[in-house]
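Take a record:
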Amino acid sequence: MLRTPLSGTQFVLAAHGYTASIASIGASIRSLQYHGRNLIVPFEANQVRPFFRGAILAPWPNRVVDGRYTFGGVEQQLSITEPSRGHALHGLVSWLNFEAVKQASNRLILSATIEAQPGYPHKVTVEIEFALDVTGLQTTVTALNVGPNAAPFGAAPHPYLVAGEGRVNDWMLELPAHRILTVTPGRLIPLRLRDINSGDLAALDFRRPRAIDDTLIDQAFTGIDRDKEGTATVRVTTNAGSGVALSWGSECPWVQVHTADQSERSIDRIGLAVEPMTCPPDAFNSGVNLQVLEPAGSTRASWTIRAID
């Protein structure tokens, strides 16, 4: 009897030198290559997905502090899914099993529904479209409130970008962001927005491309420079100039960047997490850029990962 891999049903897309493997659990991008070169840190099909690699984060990205928030005058308590810091981390869809709605050689649409539950008493259908073309892999997340009450919502992806050989320390980063959300040590609870050119934040200023070296990054950035179409782009490259870029539209005014520091050498700083977000950390409490989906209301956000030759 054939068994479904631990990461769920597998889908493969290919076009214009790109190959993407999508796993149904969490609608996760399991691998993405360009002419055989990894653009993200992959994981195996029969592996429990590590560290949210390639997953979709919704109905909130990042953290809800203490898992507690108030919405519509009602206090809610989410399950604590980041025990080390005591927060609710990265939403509810990352372990849902998505079903295929449409599939072609270079396009895939997956769908799953967040059922009303303690801490999030709302019913929201989330549809993920993956499309490969000459510009890379575009992901579009559409959320539809199919419940009777207004629902708070936010979304983001969680790829770990790979520029080439080596580790994060060996690569260059271009991050055109002018403001940073400072956080407390340890628990990473948001404090306040500050300009990136403040003296003590200089180490996190990558508006001009430069080597990451041993810099530790695990912050949310905003005030991002965009082109005339409103597109923001983060680039991670080797010294030779090849690498990977992640671009997104105005629906994501934030981006979380993390150097993926781990105590185990084999997985330490092997990819740079770049997460365009529709709202900042703890938006369920701050309300900053938090989307409120009225019954039958919907929202969408998209981003694209492409190779830099």
In short: The longest helix spans residues 283-286. The longest strand covers residues 298-308. The mean pLDDT is 97.
